[in-house]
């Protein structure tokens, strides 16, 4: 059994995204430039440890490999053997890049418009009034830093449709806009790992449109009610949304997935 989960705003939270929670419940999990910037609750950590004893825990993130490695707590405390970074573009096995998967990604990139085509298309609609910086992340996708107060949402939505026709996906998450080739996706990476380990069941969690590929290949799919996915598709019957929002949503979704796997184990035991 596999529990594959997005990290930011699903399992780990910044001060701005966590909501109201007593300070004594927080555990710092990410260190950047000498400051703690992401947290989990102590309860979430204990629940995730219990779940990790039942299932293979796979962190799955749009973060680059370098950004993922800043999350010291998950790597040191849970020591996941497999991790998916760069929105599915990279798979780490015991911290080492899986070269076979990287070769598959390079082949998949050929099915979408080139990076330069997408860059030029975005430059046609962007403006320095709301675009602060555009990064080429891990040479796989674009991360655009925005002024969230000035983002012209109708223009972004029109651009989203244009890029879909070019084989790319668009995700707007607060101050970040992601432009990602369709072949670079979380779901495909987790299916690859499932083949490696021979797992049958997958339960997943994620909050954004970039998590859809992950949720779509799962037997149980959960999403925090505060996320981009809920905002755009609240009636999605294939996904269970949490009742809670903010950092407490992590506790709720881990508990539900734990119960799901326990039920499976009980059913298998009963059959045997």
Automatic annotation (TrEMBL):
InterPro entries in the cross-refs: HAD-like_sf (IPR036412), HAD_sf (IPR023214), SPP-like_dom (IPR006380), TPP-like (IPR024197)
- Specify whether Hydrolase is a keyword of the entry: yes
- Pfam families in alphabetical order: S6PP
Q: Which residues form the Sucrose phosphatase-like domain?
A: 47-217
Specify the domain of life of the species encoding this protein: Bacteria
Q: Which GO terms describe its molecular function?
A: hydrolase activity
Provide this UniProt record's keywords sorted from A to Z.
Hydrolase
Q: What is this protein called?
A: HAD family hydrolase
Species name for this entry? Paenibacillus medicaginis
